[in-house]
């Protein structure tokens, strides 16, 4: 897939694409989300993660001017979020909702024609052709949307979101229901959009997707639980550790690991496996290897423990569940 | 008033008309009601003998046909917003720069065009059948200039009024069937008035016609604004309030 950008207006001004301060939304007594603050730079792919009901979609709808916030402030594509600016903001952004929401009786082309006119894009035929080419759907342009598979409908919705050459693109679960090949194509397209300077606000449940695509991620569970680059979040939440594997269990692991430089603690993780908490892996790993060899252990491996974004997510969300139960 | 985009209104109209054309149940609904309105007056007119034709000059039977622009667009308009909401197509549209006034005007025009075409076509067919097949004298007693003028003027006014009522209902209810039932119910007063005129219970005068036309014109202008006010993006998207 490839996306040929049709030019951008004010993406290089240095101001953030999205700037959100203490934003919140309540429906009566029910809090959808509250006190959410972050900034997103132009060209950034920002992952917005959270369990069902965390307020992700409501946040997208609020920033997309579909619903009004009850507290806080924001600027979207350089425009203050306010009812009187709704049209101007929506002109600069595009939202791809979780369900494609296509007119089933109309063809792919007719669906896109309608939206090209709603965005008042210039040279709509060329835009439609480019958008279809970007999602590999040129061959299906005349097919009624009702006859397409779920994956193809999702691609049409993505093409629709690309029509207006948006400065900020909100993608709500863009790969939901797509097969691995189609998902990979969407991922490639998002990469290309980033290179073109399009800001992508991606809500997803697929943590490996967020880890692969996003420059930074935020985890929301009504309030913002954390925000940062995936590797920063791992470092912030998990102590650095080395995983040590030996052929047989060590006779006295306390004596082997104790007193070594940069080693802060250890625990056994099965027969001949140990997790050693360290302050600096580059100092600790050679020292541990030497100590194991000196002690006569048959060393299978010494490597850094890896924590995925999923570990970060589960750690934070589990904390919330425990707090709720407590 | 803020700038209204003709292109966006045209986009909505074109999309709606394409959807109607490909939706068999809508086409059927549009065809059935006018048939009912066509058959009944035809039967009664063809039963009139030449000797009784003079009595027709004191009646306004053809105004009965103003029921078509009251009923046909009401059911279509009732379908307009709630159906999009139920099918999940409303959110992507509201995510575009389209203003609610543009969206509603586009939907109203998309209902108005076929409703007018049907109402005028049925009326034309009726006049042609009367002229060709009714007893001699009946046609000349029945087909009168002022009646035809009233039909031409009141058809769009009544249709537009029904459309705004239907759209108002469609923006407030969350079930398609409820919307259609309520809109059919709401068009009954208009049908009742045209029927009372047709059967001479209300005697139509030129002054009454002007007054009714003025009221409908004003009501249609206000209707657009009122329905735009009722159209609440947040409630329609988030299903709240």
Characterise this structure:
The complex is a heterodimer of chains A (326) and B (241). Chain A has 326 residues and is α/β, with parallel strands linked by helices. Chain A is 36% helix and 26% strand. Chain A has helices spanning 56-63, 86-92, 108-118, 124-134, 150-162, 180-195, 207-213, 230-237, 253-257, 281-294, 309-325; strands at 18-27, 30-40, 45-49, 71-76, 79-80, 93-96, 168-172, 199-203, 216-221, 223-228, 241-246, 263-268, 273-278, 299-304. Chain A has a six-stranded mixed β-sheet, with helices on both faces. In chain A, helix 3 packs across helix 4 (124-134), helix 4 packs across helix 5 and helix 8 (230-237) crosses helix 11. Chain A is elongated. The mean pLDDT of chain B is 86. Chain B has one domain. Chain B has 241 residues and is mainly α. The interface between A and B is medium-sized, with 34 and 30 residues.
Walk across the major sheet of chain A and give the strand order.
6-7-8-3-9-10
**Euclidean distance between termini CA atoms of chain B:** 27 Å
CATH topology of the largest domain in chain A: Rossmann fold
Q: Count the domains of chain B.
A: 1
Question: How many domains make up the 3D coordinates of chain A?
Answer: 2
Spans of at least 5 consecutive residues with low confidence of chain A: 5-9
> What is the end-to-end distance of chain A?
49 Å
The total count of strands of chain A amounts to 14
Number of strands of chain B: 0
The named CATH superfamily of the largest domain in chain A = P-loop containing nucleotide triphosphate hydrolases
Q: Helicity of chain A, in percent?
A: 25-40%
Largest sheet of chain A: 6 strands, mixed
**Gyration radius of chain A, rounded:** 24 Å
CATH class of the largest domain in chain A: Alpha Beta
Most extensive chain interface and residues per partner? A-B, 34 and 30 residues
Order of helices and strands of chain B: HHHHHHHHHHHH
Strand content of chain B: under 5%
Helix content of chain B: over 70%
Secondary-structure-derived class of chain B: mainly alpha
Please tell me how large the radius of gyration of chain B is.
20 Å
């Amino acid at each position: 897939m490839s996306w040929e950008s049709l030019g951008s207006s004010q993406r290089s001004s240095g101001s953030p694409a999205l700037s959100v301060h203490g934003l919140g939304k309540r429906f009566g007594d029910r809090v959808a989300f509250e006190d959410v603050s972050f900034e997103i730079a132009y060209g950034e792919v920002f992952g917005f993660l959270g369990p069902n009901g965390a307020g992700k979609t409501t946040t997208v709808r609020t920033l997309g001017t579909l619903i009004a916030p009850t507290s806080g402030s924001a600027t979207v594509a350089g425009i203050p979020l306010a009812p009187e600016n709704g049209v101007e903001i929506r002109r600069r952004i595009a939202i791809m909702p979780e369900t494609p929401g296509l007119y089933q009786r109309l063809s792919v082309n007719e669906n896109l024609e309608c939206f090209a006119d709603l965005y008042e894009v210039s040279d709509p035929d060329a835009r439609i052709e480019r958008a279809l080419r970007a999602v590999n759907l040129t061959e299906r342009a005349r097919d009624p949307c009702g006859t397409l598979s779920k994956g193809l409908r999702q691609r049409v919705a993505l093409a629709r979101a690309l029509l207006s050459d948006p400065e900020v693109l909100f993608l709500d679960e863009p790969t939901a229901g797509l097969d691995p090949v189609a998902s990979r194509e969407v991922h490639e397209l998002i990469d290309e959009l980033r290179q073109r300077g399009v800001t992508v606000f991606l809500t997803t449940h697929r943590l490996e997707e967020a880890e692969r695509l996003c420059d930074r991620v935020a985890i929301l569970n009504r309030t913002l639980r954390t925000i940062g680059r995936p590797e920063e979040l791992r470092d912030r939440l998990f102590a650095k550790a080395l995983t040590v594997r030996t052929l047989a269990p060590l006779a006295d692991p306390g004596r082997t690991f104790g007193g070594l430089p940069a080693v802060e603690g250890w625990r056994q993780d099965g027969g001949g496996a140990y997790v050693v908490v360290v302050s600096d892996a580059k100092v600790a790993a050679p020292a541990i290897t030497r100590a194991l060899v000196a002690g006569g252990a048959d060393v299978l491996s010494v490597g850094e423990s890896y924590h995925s974004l999923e570990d970060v997510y589960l750690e934070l969300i589990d904390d919330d569940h425990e707090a709720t139960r407590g | 008033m803020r700038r209204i985009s003709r292109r966006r209104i045209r986009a909505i109209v074109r999309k709606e008309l394409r959807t109607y054309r490909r939706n068999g149940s809508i086409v059927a609904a549009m065809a059935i009601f006018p048939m009912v309105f066509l058959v009944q007056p035809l039967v009664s007119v063809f039963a009139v003998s030449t000797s009784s034709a003079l009595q027709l000059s004191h009646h306004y039977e053809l105004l009965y046909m103003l029921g078509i622009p009251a009923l046909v667009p009401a059911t279509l308009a009732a379908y307009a917003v709630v159906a999009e909401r139920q099918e999940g197509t409303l959110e992507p549209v509201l995510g575009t720069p389209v203003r609610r006034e543009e969206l509603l005007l586009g939907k109203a025009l998309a209902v108005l065009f076929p409703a007018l075409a049907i109402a005028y076509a049925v009326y034309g067919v009726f006049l042609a059948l009367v002229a060709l097949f009714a007893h001699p004298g009946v046609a000349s007693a029945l087909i009168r200039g002022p009646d035809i003028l009233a039909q031409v003027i009141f058809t769009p006014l009544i249709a537009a009024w029904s459309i705004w009522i239907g759209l108002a209902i469609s923006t407030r209810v969350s079930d398609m069937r409820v919307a259609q039932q309520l809109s059919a119910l709401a068009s009954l007063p208009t049908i009742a008035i045209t029927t009372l005129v047709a059967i001479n219970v209300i005697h139509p005068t030129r002054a009454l016609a002007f007054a009714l036309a003025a009221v409908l014109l004003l009501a249609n202008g206000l209707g657009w604004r009122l329905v735009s006010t009722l159209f609440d993006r947040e409630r329609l998207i988030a299903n709240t309030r």
